Amino acid sequence: MLALSATPVWAQQLEPRAYSNVPVGLNFLVAGYTYSTGGLATDPATPLQNAALEIHAPLVAYARSFDAWGKSAKFDAVLAAGCLSGTAEADGVPVLRDICGGLDPAFRVTVNFYGAPALSLAEFRSYRQDLIAGASLQVIAPYEQYDPERLVNLGTNRWTFKPE
């Protein structure tokens, strides 16, 4: 019922409670679907203007919590596919793009270094969360669809390292 009553939302890539303490040894499996429509943020040097795109992207993710030097930590991986269609102007000429394929996979390691001890499920029951500080590194690998002749692609054709 909740899935059928979903409404559009505006968001950015930010995982709520990304650094929250969780019991060590838990596995998470997530399936999701994203839909995006609208313009495109590009480098001003790119000859692409007035983009109107629609993107449908199902995804599957896996995460596992573990003990890192006595503190809670987590590894996660996200695999997604997508279909992109839309129009834009390239150097003033109308262009159309319609493509389906894989998106670049993302991997992240999150380690808490203050206030989030590594706890078993039994120990976690009596844990009361307070201030937590941590860090993460996300790596996105250039693996999927990329066409250097096109201005808009599903893949990026570059490695991305995102520390937080």
Shape call = elongated
Helix content: under 10%
Strand content: over 45%
How far the N terminus sits from the C terminus, by CA atoms, comes to 35 Å
The mean pLDDT is 87
Number of strands: 7
Radius of gyration: 20 Å
- What order do the SSEs take from the amino end to the carboxyl end, as H and E? EEEEEHEE
How many helices? The count is: 1
Describe the biggest sheet?
7 strands, antiparallel
Task: Label the structural class.
Answer: mainly beta
Unreliable segments (pLDDT under 50, ≥5 consecutive)? none
Give short descriptive properties of this protein.
51% strand; 164 residues; 2% helix; mainly beta; 7-stranded antiparallel sheet
Tell me what the structure shows:
By secondary structure, the protein is an all-beta fold. It is 2% helix and 51% strand. The chain has one helix spanning 121-124, and strands at 27-38, 48-68, 71-90, 93-102, 106-114, 133-140, 160-163.
In short:
With 164 residues, the protein is mainly beta.
Topology:
Blueprint: E1 27-38, E2 48-68, E3 71-90, E4 93-102, E5 106-114, H1 121-124, E6 133-140, E7 160-163
Antiparallel strand pairs: 1-2, 2-3, 3-4, 3-5, 5-6, 6-7
